[in-house]
Structure formats: C-alpha cells, structure tokens
Amino acid sequence: MQQKEMEPVVYRNFLRILLTILAAFVATAAAKPVTVTADVGFRWDFMQIMNSSSAPINETSDSSWLNKFWITNIKSSLLIKSRIGENVTAFIKLYALAQFTVPFNNNNMVQQRSGGGGLDEALATYRFGAADSLSPALTIGKFCFDYTREWQRLGGYLFRTGVYPGYILSTYIDNRIMGGYLSVRLPTTLTHRLFVTVEYEQKPLNDITLTYLGEMESAGARLSAACMLHRLLRTDQGYYMYSAGSPMIAIEEWSDGGKKKYYPRAGVKLVGRILYDFQTLIKSARLGANDLQIYVEAALLGAQNFPGYYNKITERVPVMAGITLPAFKVLDLAGVEVEWYGSRWRNNPSWLGVPVPKETYIARPDGAGYVFVENPATEDAGPKSKEDNIKWAVFVQKDVKNISLGLHAASDHFRAPQDIGYQQRELLLTPREWYWQATLHTRF
Amino acid sequence: MVIPKAACLPLAAAQKRSVMLLMAAVMAAFGAAEGEESGGAQPRIVSIGGELSYRVMQLVNTVGANAGLDIYVRNINWDDRRTINREWNHRVSAEALVTITPKERIYFRLGYRAGQGAGLSECRAVLSNNAFMLEGGILKFRYNPDARNLGEYLILSGAYPGFVFSGREWANNVGLHLRTTLGPHLTHDVLALVELENIPFNDISLVYIASYSPARALTLGAGVSFHRLIPFNPDLTTPPPENAGGEQIEFTHRGVKLMGRMSFDVKPLLGSPGLFGPEDLKIYAEAAVLGVKDYPVYYDNIRERIPVMVGLNVPAFNILDYIAVEGEWYGSPHLNTTPLRHYRAIPIEPDIGDRDDLKWSVSIKRAIDEHIAVYGRVANDHLRTEDASGGVSERELMMAPENWYWSIAVTLTF
Amino acid sequence: MRPVIALMSAALFAVSATASVRDSSRTILGVHISGYMNFSLMRIVKSSAIPNIESDRPYLNGAWIEGISGGLSVEKNVGARLTLNSGLGGQISHGTQGKNVNWKGLGRQAGAWLSVASAHVKFGNVEHPPLELTAGFFGYNYTRTRDFGGYLVSAGLRPMILASSAGSGGVTGVLLRGNAPNFLRNDIVLTLETERQPYLDVSAIYVPTLHVDDKFEIAAGVNFHRFLVAANRETDPELVETPITTAVHHTDSGTFYETTGMPFGGIKVMGRLWADPIKILKIGGPFWGREDLRLYGECAVLGLEDFPVNIDGRGYPDIKNRIVAMAGLNLPTHSLIGNGLFPLALSMFLIGIEADSTYFDNIVRDNMGNVVSQDTVIAKRGFDHKKPRPFIWAGASILSGAGTFLLEKIVGRPLRLDVITVEVEYCPSPFYENHAIPSGLPIYVDAWDQIAGRRTSNDLWHYDDWRWAAMVSKKIADRLSFNLKLASDHTRIREPNGWYSAEEKLYTFWEWYWELGIGVGF
Q1: pTM, whole model, 2 decimals?
Q2: SS3 A289
Q3: ipTM, two decimals
Q4: Which of residues 20-59 of B touch A (CB under 8 A)?
C-alpha cells in the first residue's frame, strides 16, 4: 500500500478512546427506577418543483422534466423515551414512511413510489453529577443535531457540508450524525460541545471526525463558533481507496513539481454564526417570540488550498444571512434568507468518494450529460457556475397547539428526498429555479 | 411444455386427513373457549421496553472479498482481500418491544428492530405456567446458553449442504415451541419451525431437544432435528438428480441432524471460592451431525459433516462477567455458503481445503448495571454481512486462519 | 405441515381462551397503544400466472405463501377534540415471482411500512360530533363488505383495476364527515392518488349514506377521479393522457396515425345497500347468529365517458363493460348449516369448477431445443376425476355438521362460527386491467391457458368476469381471530415497503386460493 500525501493518523488508538468514554458509564448502582413514555407524531411534506433545469443523468442541461414535479412525504414517528435512574435517559425514534419522489438517479421519467420504516434516532445521554441541564452530559448514538433554529432553511453548515468537495445540504434535510458528544457549560453562558462522529453516508465510510462547537448566549445575542477536523482519523480502507492502483474508485491526483499527490477527503472546516434578537432592544407585546431576529453564518469548507480545484479560498466560503420579519402573532414566523457560495463547480457528494467535483455546467456535444472537468485551474465551469452562487428562501409558519403548518419557497440546495435521506444531485441551479413546500407536522 | 400433474391434482388423502384434523382441532378449541368470551374484565398490562446498541467492528484481515457481490465468482481472488482489509463498521440499532400481559400466564410480545434496515424482531404469543411454556410466532430461541458465539448447530445450520452460522444472538425462527420439565432434572423442548431464511422456503422442521441437569454444575443435552421433514414444494426440497461421479444422483435438503452438548462448572470441585464469578471456569462443548445419511460423492464421509465446538470461560474474577474462549473444528471440504440463487442440494463453491476448518472466538461481557452492558469479541468465525432485511449474506468473511476481526458493543436496555 | 397448523391453531386458541381484556396502561403516559400480530398461510391452488416472457410455466399452481406481520398504532389525544394517530407495520415473508421482480426479490423479505398517520378533529358535541375531520394517511371504507366492493375508492378508472380490500381504500388527504341528522351520513373526501401511476392526482369523492339504526343502509356516491392532474402536460404528456391510435393511414407520402387522448381521470358513480333482515323482520332467536342473513350489494360504473378503441382493439367503447357489481350474504352459522351444509356446498362447488387442463407428454426436441413431436394429453377434472371425492367431502361435511350439533347439545354451549360470508362479483371487462404500466389502456391477458394448453393470445377474455369468495371467521375473547378464506378474487401480494403489487395472480373464476389467518389484536 502506498503512502499518502497526508501522514495517516489511523485510529488504532480508537479502542483506548472508546474505553475512556465507556469508563464514564461505570456504575455499580443497585436497581434503578425506570420510567418509559411513548409519544407519537407525524409529518407531511408536500413540495412542487416549479422550475428546474437539472437534466436527467446522461442528458444535457436545460431540461424541463422536473418542472411542476410533485413530491410528497408522509412520515409517522413513534418515540420512546426512558429515564433510568437519575442520570441516564434513552431515546428511540422509529419512523414509517410513504414517499413519492424524484426517481432515483434522476433517470426515469415516472415518479417513484417508495416506503419503508426504520430507525430515525437512537441515543442515550448520561449526565454527570446532578441531573439538570447545567451538568456535563455525554450523548452517544445516532441522532439529529442542529445548532441553528429549527425554522432555518439555509446555513447549518457545520454538519451539512462536506469538504473536498464542498457540497452543501439544505436544512430541510434532517441531519443525522452518528457518534457522540460531550457537552459542558462553563461558565453557564458558554456551552462547549466536543463531537466525535463517524462518517456513515459518504465514502469512504467510517472515518472519524472531531468537532468542537462553542455557543454563547448573552444580551439577546447568540454566538456559535466551530472547528471541525473532518475525517481526522481515517480508516485504512480510506487510505487504500486513494492510493494508486485502487480498483475501488477513480482517484484524483495532481502534480507537484512532477511528483504525484492526491486530493484528500479530509480537511479543516470552520464555522461561525451569530444571531441577534432585536426584541432585546425593541420590546412590544405585539411581536411574536421569533420576530425580529437577524442571523449570519459563514463557513470555510477546507482551510488548505490545493492546485486545480481548490486554489482559491474564497470559492470555499459559503455565507448566509437571514432575518425574521415582524409577524405580529398573526403568524408565528415569517422570514427571508440569502446565501452566497462562490464555488465554481457542481458540488454533489459523490457516492464514489471522489474528493473533487467532476461535473461542469457545460453540456457535452453529444448531449449525453455534462463535460467532466479536465483542467480545473483554468477551465471555464460553464454558464451557470456563477449563477448558482446565490440562493434564497422565504418562509412562514403557524403553530396551533402541537401542530405546525409551514410554507416556504426557496432556491436552495434542494435534493430530492430518498427515504429519510436525500439523493445526491442538487436540482436547482440558478436563482430563477425554485420550489415551494408545505409542511404539516406535530411536535413532541 | 409439460404441466406437472401434481400441480393439477386435488387434495390427496394425507392432506384431507390433515384438514379434518385441523377442523376437529378448531372445533374443539371453539368449545373450550366459547364460554370464556364474556368473562370478567381484567386489567391489561401494556409495557414498552427497548434496547439501544452501538457496535464498532473492525475486519482486521478478511478474505471474503466477494461477499455481497451480485455475481457468483468461481475462483476466489486472494489478492482481492485488500478490498475489505481492516474495514471498520459502526452500527447503531434500536429495538422497541411492546408486551401485553392480559393475564398472569399469558403475554404477547411485538418487537420492532431498526438500524440497518427495519422489521419485526419478535412477534409471539406465550402461555406459561409451572409445568410448561408454549409460544408461537417469531421466536427467539436458544438451547445452549453457554455458547457465546460458536455452536447452536442443531437449528442454526443446514443439511446437504451443511452450512453453519455464528454470532447470531437469536435465530429468527417462526413456528411453535413447547417447553416442559417432565421428569427429574429434565427439560424438553419441542419445536415446529417454518423455514423463512434459507431456500427452499416454508419447509417445516421438527426439533426435539432434551437437557439433563443432575447437578447445578453439570448439564447434558441432546437433540434431533428432522430438518425439512415436511416440504412445501418437494421439487425444490429434493431437486432433480445431479450428475455426480458419472451417475445421476438425487440429493435432498432434507435430513436428520443430531446434537449433543455438555456444560460443566469446575468451581464446585474447587469449593466454589468467592473470587470467581458465576460464569468462570465453565467448560462446555457441542457437536452435531448435519445429516446422518451419507450420499455419494459430496456427502460420503460423515466426519465431514460433524462440527465440534469446545468452550472455556476463563476466570474473570468478577472484573468481567465472562471471558469465553471457544474453538470449533468443522471438517467440511466445502465452503460454508448458504444456497441463495439455486435450489441444488450440493455445495457449489470450489473446495479450498482445510484452511477454514478451525475457527476460534474470544467473547467478553461486562454488565455495568442491569441496563448497560459492554460486549467485546475477537474471532475468526462464520461472520457474514447483514443485509437491510435482517438476513445475512450467503458467504462468510473469514476463510483462512489468518483472518480475524474484533468488535465492541454497548447496549442499553430498558 | 397441516398437523402443525392444527397444533398451532389449537395452541393459540388455548393461549387466548381465557384472555379477556379491558383497556388500561401502566407506564405509558398520554398515549394509547394498540396493535396486532398476524400469521398468514396461503396456498394458491390454481393459477395461470406466468412470470415473464421467458417462461410459460404456471409457476403459482400449488404455491405456498406465508408471512408473519405485526403492527403498532399509537393514538394520542391532544385535548378533547384532537386525536393524532400514528402507526407502523412490519412483516417477514418472502416474495413471489412476477414480471418485474428480479431474483433478489424472491428471498427473505423483512419489510416495514407506514400504516397510518392522521389527525382527527371533532366539531360540535364531542360525544356525538355532527362534523368530523380526518386528515393525513389513513384507510377509508364506506362499505361493510369483506372482500369485494368499495369501488369508489378502491377501484381504478383507466385502467379499471379492481381490488380485494374489503372495500377499503387508502386516503392521503382529507375526509370531512357530517353526521347530522343522525340517520344521514355525508362523507366528502379529497385524496391524492397513491396506489397506481400516475401518482398524486387529486380526486374528490362524495358519499351520502342513509342508515336506519343498524338495520338498513342505502348509499350512493360519486368520485371525480383525478380531477386535478399532478403531471406536467409539457414534460410528461403521457402521464396526463394516454394516446389512443384510432386509425392508421398508409399513403404514398408516408404513414399517418389518427390519435386522440384519453385522460386517466373521469367520473365514477356508485350505489349500494346493506340490510339485516333479522333485525328488520324481528325474527331473532337462538337459531340465528349475530350477523346471520345480512345481505348487501354494490354496483358501480367505472367511467361514464366512452372512448374509442386503439387499433389493436383495446379501449373503453362500451359502458356495459365498465359496470361492476357485487353481492354478499352472511349464511346462517347454525352448526347444521355452517358446519355441515356450507362445507358440503362449498366442496361441491370447488370440485365442480375444476377445469380440465391440457399438458404435453413425450416431448421430443431437436438440437436447437425446438419441439419436434409431443403427445397432447387432456387431464379430466371436476366430478369426472377421482369420483369418490364428492362423497367423501359430503360425508365429512354431514358428519361435521351433525357432530357439532350434537356436541352443542352435550356441552350446552354454542360452537358456531361467528360469520360465514359468501360474496360474488361480476365485471364483464374483456381485458386485463391490473397491470403496473403507466398507461390508461388495459392490456390483453398474458397467462398460460391451462385448458387450451398454450399461452393466451390477444383474445377478449371473459373467464374472469365472475369472481367469488367464501370467508369464515371466529373471534375468541375479543382479541384472537381466526379467518379462513377461499376465493377467486383480486388478491395481490404485499411488497416489503408496504405497497401492494399491481399484478393479480388469478385469471379465471376456477382459479382460487385459500388463506388462513391467525391474528391477535391488542
């Protein structure tokens, strides 16, 4: 097996780390009281793609086959919560789903009907010391985590982006991470979270990522900052996949003074977010709880430059801003968001694990798909490479007891839902391409 | 084109008798039950439980490179072992269990497991009292409580070809199970199982297992399985004759399997010192015959159809609940592959000699408390990849002595 | 296998014989949990289905299909008026071969699916709400049938897919039900199409039902099927209308086709009635079971508008071929009848409908595999085959009936079944409507004609105009149910993701199956 460009940091010490974490659970308590509660919920998403030029696979761009395409998801959830003693809580969320979506691989004109069920979330939390929200806590499992507000459409870059290539997922996609995190509040206004997560969606699988997220809330402002060492601990299989002669995937190499080097999938991601609630300054009983909040978020998807695809850092910095408008309690939420992301390429997570984007926006002369990138440093990525830099979203929401009805229109990083995940390809390529979505869901 | 005559025939005499038996049983049961319909109301206890599990595994050195590929490959390419060499696997899974206890002796249990795929894990009705326990549905049944990984050959195996499994905590059997304790120190298990895992499907097997425990330290067990005794489609259970050794020979998936096991706790001989844990110093063994009858060419030597497992719980001195070291010898000259795409009752994989005859496993467990437990394993066993439906792949991943893996799992049960 | 079924049946009877329940919960707060477990054993006694064009063998003759399924449903009350209902189901079974199933689908299947996800709101008096609204994903049934019927929601239009779903159809949408005055029920349903392509079209259904206590019901209904089309006419014109080629003109300058478009949608109308003569005539007594003599019927027109035929003869030109009617009757469950006369009549019927079949023997092939010569053999069936059969069945039935009657006298308690139902359906469509192709046109039956001994060709097919079903059921302790069905109906196989396959497996009225279901509800 060849050596890689980046010195491997395999997680042979993973066992040691795991045992240390497990030691936190050691207890010799007698039988603990157990309470189990169950809850139920459902969610119905109804969407229509109004305008999309995304063509089916192996066809040219500017297709209209997705125009006026309907998508619907009906999902039912069963939630089981358990408290074991004072310090341990467990949470299992099972789902069942009926779905009508874009045909998988986008290469079939007939709508795809699917269904199924499975595990939505499963996590256990152990609180050290007193069982209150100020105590440190360790959470392990597979679960959704979001440091943004639940109604946000753009942003949430920390766990919704990749590095090399820097793809972005929109926040309507439930973001599940697998692994665990330690949460500590020190001082009480500052929350530190240290994540150790396992890559289970994008190849190469099972790489381990270390992330620090700090959040501070004070005087109406909420500041979040994060640093992610993406794929810090890489499996041997991951290394093998990127070595010459690998039969697994097409590798991407570049030349450094005649010496072959390889693009990594690993990298450093930085994220910063600030939210300010103007109701701290403007107090009015007429304003709803979510009104007049302004928030900005930016990220760096890969701190290191590489020649060719990643030679300009500004092409790896998505920035978004949003504001919630006064809804005066007629609605519970009304907001607008915009994003700018200067990447030249179509950033789709590649199921092959290729660490670079492959497709341009240039149609092949024979009409069978898009031209692959040949000279990334100098090559023109195509007519939409700059148009797709801008994304936008507008949204409203009304809550009645446990039920929320939301409506939004957006030109974001929309990818068709596939089970509780998503398909690989982004379907909206310019700000004129958009969709709307209505969501009815219950709150636990 | 020939239409099989059997497909067009009406019920045969044996079928008619069975239908009559069914009708009689149904009517008798009606009579027994009728008067109870308007019985007094009693509380129904509904409880929900669950289990979460996080497992990390690393396939340190494996050769099953073609496991999971769609096409059948006749020659194992040994160089391909690198493709899943030192592969990691992380899995989070959860199970929800609903138990309904309408009366003291009766309960219904529905289990739904999700993780990699989803589906029913348990779906059974249980009636029990001091004399017997009767359950039906999707069962979780084990007859060898000492075996941690290897063993459990009587049910978790095939006959002709005689494939075996390991590491499966429960065999998802569907059928009926009756357990009684007639006779001193005896436990009898009678099962009627429907094959829903390995083709051909729907065949019924009858199993009888007896366990004898004259003393707390000693358990002897024996069992017989009339594997696929009642075939649903005889043409599939006993396929057309094969050309073997220049002759046309009819092989069948049906067979009689035998099992014997023992478990001996050494501690009483040492005066049961308190420094040992309850599982320490247990020696156990199990052997089985996966088809007592010989057939020419492929199954002409009964010794090649006898897997033998021996295990020892090394003293853990209460630091761990157990450290189980197990070894298995299975001298089959064929690959341990389950039939998936064909119904032929002969092994189809090429012979790789005796490199895979020996298997070993070291399993540990530490219960943190009554809800949390940590499991660990290092082994070269019959590990197979799991698919989304909860089934396992046809090929195993460990084929040579230098192949092995390790895993750690943490479970939380409530 | 059958003795095992008997043992299993008896065991499960024994398990539940002493069970009686009342709703209560201990540790579950705020939600009510219910569920079911069901073991199903089916045997397709006769079927002409062939898997694909490479094989002509009627592979389902005698096939066993078995599965075990379970489901959980959780109901949560949010206040006095709002109830949320959420359910999931799962099963372990194995697939059957079909025209679109590859080998991977034939193995063990463990599936999970969404069974219900709905919210229910009551308006007005909470105890007897004059108005109710249900929204989400749920089943809707306006009938009281047990196999056929429910055409307004369960049947297709173009193609005219018929289902055996006991009248139930899936609704993904909204049901508004008015219950005032108390003898009139008005249902208005808006639903998305989820069963067959093209999906997500919107249909509007109105069903007014006049009911007199629990004695008599008469209802009518109309379904503006797919009045709102989801597909984009510009990008998917064939999902909006199916093109029909009505004529071909060959000229010197080329070939020209006359075409017209046929929408998938249209109007369905329905009428039904249901009656309980025992209550109407007040002739109740120990002779009768609780549900005896109930009779019902439904008639529907699946599409009021005629369309011309395609040049290959397929189409919907005649409204008479789009009328479907069903009728059902609950037979007396008295032991002499239910355990005696009924099985006697049923066995004679099953023997009588057995059709002769043709098979080929002594086949000689050439080097290319082509048949050079063969003997054609006609296998006689029915009463001409195994002549003692009718007498054996008759004797067994009489013995069963008389024996049960005497046993009742001895033990002093009734041993009757709960319900014995016989249903029939008639639909004269000459085509195969139950296909999965996204086209509004029917197709010709593609099966193995076991009488003629050859594959069917493009013939009009009327062997399936009549369908029938006989069902018996017995419930123990309100929880354990035994159901036995013998039928030649529109049975389909459930796929692992919970949706039912589009293909029917029975092509004539003499092809049938039996199915035993043992279920526990809680």
Answers
A1: 0.81
A2: coil
A3: 0.81
A4: 47-50, 52, 54, 56
